[in-house]
Predict the structure of Exonuclease, putative.
Amino acid sequence: MSLVRVITPCKIPSSCSNFVIPVFRNPRNNPLAFRTLPKFNITAKYAQITSSASSTTPSATYDDTNTYRWKPMCLYFTHGKCTKMDDPTHLEVFNHDCSRDLPVNAADFKRKRPQDFEFFLVFDLEGKVEILEFPVLIIDAKTMAFVDLFHRFVRPSAMSEQRINEYIENKYGKFGVDRVWHDTALPFNEVIQEFEAWLTHHHLWEKKHGGHLNRAAFVTCGNWDVKTQIPRQCTVSKIKLPRYFMEWINLKDVYQNFYNPKQEARGMRTMMQQLKIPMLGSHHLGIDDTKNVARILQRMLADGAVIPITAWRNPDSIGNVNFLYKNRI
């Protein structure tokens, strides 16, 4: 795999030790909130690797001439830390608008049916030992459109610094985003606090209302994310399992029972192949996987699927999980 070009890292004047940036990333849908953060450098290695990784990666952004071409997300931007929004070269390489990867066409509404929820929170964790990446996309259940993105890299709390560095190099080095991870990663308890503030901003959750989601449900590609890894990470991070993680939608189970395909929907790639949806970005980079799962969800909604809760746990016994379908993955 060859690197096609190198973008000069971001330079911030030495007189500027801090700067103001927006926290929420979709100015068309959300008012901007601001915070002060330290300076950092930015790399385009991720763009180089993903652009050369597959010649079949489809286009997924429109430029001024209406040509359709894919760009990797600026992962500093998803964390609210991009300082190169006025740099044409940087903007040419990186996408800063997640909605461009999730378009909706008028024809998609012909068979669409009413849903039990107003919003779906598409969710795909990364990290087998501890959680390393926590991306969540809001999809409007009525319009099927992208609403907003929450994306954080997560710093493990029960590993040595040497083990963390090895883990991140092996996991994210191949994608070229290991430097971004080190620049932005936060402990899981801080990520959860920021996530809850983000949910509250969208009126999807309030702690005083019992801690459950409001008008929304998590959508995952499998049961592992919410059933296993979230409780495990909460134990490691010594925090109580949030009540909004008591139920979720395993999209694979809904897919299996809606389409009843000859081949079981063992994973995201299988579903995308069967639906003839080209994959965007890098598989096992959480933000890209989340967008691809969201694209499967959009297709299923357009095909007339109703997306119900498929799994729920007893708050008094979180290991006791009930499932909607007998025919499940």
Summary: Residues 1-44, 49-66 have pLDDT under 50 and may be disordered. Residues 24 and 32 are 6 Å apart (CA to CA).
